[in-house]
Amino acid sequence: MKEFNSIRELVTQAEAHHCPISRIVIDNQMNYLKKTEDELHLQMDEHLQVMWEAYQNGYQEMKSPSGLSGGMAKKYHQSTVSGKLLSPLTKEAITIALSISEYNACMGRIVAAPTAGSCGILPAVLFSVSNTFQLERKKTLDALFHSAGVCMVIAKNASISGAEGGCQAECGSAAAAAASAAVELMGGTPEMSAHACALALKFVMGLVCDPVAGLVEVPCVKRNASGAVNALTAAELALSGIESAIPVDEVIEAMKNVGTMMPCALKETAQGGLAATKTARKISERVHGR
Ligand code: SF4
Q1: What is the rounded distance in angstroms from the CA atom of residue 288 to the CA atom of residue 282?
Q2: Comparing C-alpha atoms, which of 221, 200, 280 is closest to residue 98?
Q3: Which of 87, 135, 144, 218: disulfide with 212, CB 3.0–4.6 Å?
């Protein structure tokens, strides 16, 4: 895919052509990859199918090799059957995020979106919104292209990797892409998508990467659940007309700078944050031995 240089560029192009951001990304891919729109949709449909299967499989009873993950999605979902819900959409998003993220921990097949550690956030948002509002599959596929465009910009101008920029770069980027795409799914403007993207990144600015025992399980699985809710909150605010005071590309730049300032102990080395707690060290000894 030919690179986009900024979110502003995506928004400007979409506005100039009176189309959604997904259209710009799809056209870009068609030109660059010399593929038809149908071929691209078919390819993206396979990714969407893998995401759905990861959700279905992750919802089953299973345990990761470390014993740290598995069964949380089902436990959460069953506890909400009582009807004590803040929002059915949020419930569905959390369930999907937990399922897919736990399935990843159990070595299941997932789609890195944009990374394996943050794989539950984007499908959680897209599936929950599409299911709740009964949107056609093609719209969900377009939303995936939209998210790809956003992640491309963040990867180019900052990072999508916890090892490079902390969890703000990994779960933050996934939430930002999901929020931006959710706005498009709900009929919001490209400008609103840009604000949703900025807001989702701002909500987790500075979030460190501190996987217990070096495994993408604790706190990663639950951060996928909070990442999905982060994205939905950002999308809700943007759709209501609330804007980010800081323009999205400046937020991305700030995220990059925060990642650079972050010590290595807080970037996937499992030497700081939650990974350095007494309990985490005990877990690490149990899993890896002394
Ligand atoms: S804590 Fe680190 S490994 Fe876990 S999801 Fe966040 S960035 Fe990925």
Answers
A1: 10
A2: 221
A3: 218
How open is the CA angle 76-57-108, to the nearest 5 degrees?
110
Rounded to two decimals, what is the model's pTM? 0.96
43 CB-side CA count, 13 A: 11
Q: What is the pLDDT of residue 174?
A: 98
Question: Cis ω on the peptide bond leading into residue 114 (within 30° of 0)?
Answer: yes
If pLDDT is split at 50, 70 and 90, which confidence band does 116 have? very high
221 CB within 6 A, ligand 1: no
The reply to whether ligand 1 has any atom less than 6 angstroms from the CB of 268 is yes
Residues with Cβ within 8 Å of 266's Cβ and at least 6 positions away in sequence, in order, are 166, 208, 209, 210, 272, 273
- Percent pLDDT > 70 in the chain is 98
Average pLDDT rounded to a whole number, residues 81-98: 86
**Does residue 227 line the site of ligand 1, with CB under 6 A?**
no
pLDDT of residue 77: 86
Rounded Cα distance between 268 and 215, Å, is: 9
Contacts 24+ apart (CB under 8 A), 28-37: 28/1, 28/2, 28/4, 28/149, 29/1, 29/145, 31/2, 32/1, 32/2, 33/1
The residue type found at 106 is: C
185 in ligand 1 pocket by Cβ < 6 Å?
A: no
Would you tell me how many other CB atoms lie within 10 Å of the CB of residue 104? 28
Protein residue closest via CA to atom 4 of ligand 1: 220
CB burial of 222-252 (b: ≥16 within 10 Å; e: otherwise) equals ebbbbbbbbbbbbbbbbbeeeebeebbbebb
Could you report the per-residue pLDDT of 180-191, keeping only the tens digit for each? Answer: 999 999 999 999
